[in-house]
Design a protein that fits this description.
The complex is a heterodimer. By secondary structure, chain A is mostly beta strands. Chain A contains no helices and eleven strands. In chain A, β6 and β7 form a beta hairpin. Classes of the chains: A mainly beta, B mainly beta.
């Protein structure tokens, strides 16, 4: 039962443009959402998170939006840079030790 | 520098061999996790631990076992490796359970 879904396996954008990565979830109990970034041959690293009491959280070039009614969150990267090329995982949790991850979206930012 | 270490990074081993994947963290985190990930698929939780002498199985059925004799060490053992165990294994730790720090992973190939 895949409770967190990233339906786009890959995304390609031009340097300087906006990257939008999407994530849908099915469990309405989730109250905390995270994005992780993963480079090849490395483990995922925490990027940004959002609590269910908010609908937006911003950290530099990265902004996460949460639409609870649609059970949807998105990660916006503006402007995109070649170093942003990686696999991005969406994750959700509502209790410790029960974090669910999506399958990831591979972002390629072209110079 | 606080970090989480996994060894080996890559392992190719024959069917039927016993293997132990090592995971150590220097952050003093009580919570530790093992995830299994196949390419293009979500991370699946296979084991977790709340602290010393505490271990639990995750969602994904796994023939592996874990131990937690020391806070910093959370090794995963496969008694008899099979080709179906070929995957990437990611270890993570957390102070609160809300955000994880991942190791670089072990890519296991069983031939």
């Amino acid at each position: 039962d895949q409770q967190v879904k990233q339906n786009s396996p890959s995304l390609s954008v031009q340097e300087g443009r906006i990257s939008i990565l999407n994530c849908d979830y099915t469990n309405s109990m989730f109250d905390y959402f995270l994005w992780y970034k993963k480079y090849p041959a490395e483990g995922p690293t925490f990027l940004i998170s959002i609590s269910s009491i908010k609908d937006k959280n911003e950290d530099g070039r990265f902004t996460v939006f949460l639409n609870k009614s649609a059970k949807h969150l998105s990660l916006h990267i503006v402007p995109s840079q070649p170093g942003d090329s990686a696999v991005y995982f969406c994750a959700a949790t509502y209790q410790p030790n029960d974090m669910r991850f999506g399958a990831g979206t591979r972002l390629t930012v072209k110079p | 520098e606080a970090d989480i270490y996994q060894t080996p990074r890559y392992l190719v081993i024959g069917t039927g061999k016993k293997i132990t994947l090592e995971c150590s963290q220097t952050m003093g985190h009580d919570k530790m996790y093992w995830y299994q990930q196949d390419p293009g698929m979500e991370l699946h939780l296979i084991h977790y631990s709340y602290g010393v002498n505490s271990t639990e199985k995750g969602d994904l059925s796994s023939e592996s076992t874990v131990s937690r004799i020391r806070t910093e060490h959370f090794p995963l053992t496969l008694e008899s490796a099979r080709p179906s165990h070929t995957s990437q294994y990611l270890c993570a730790s957390s102070e609160t359970g809300a955000s994880y720090t991942f190791g670089s992973g072990t890519r296991l190939t069983v031939v």
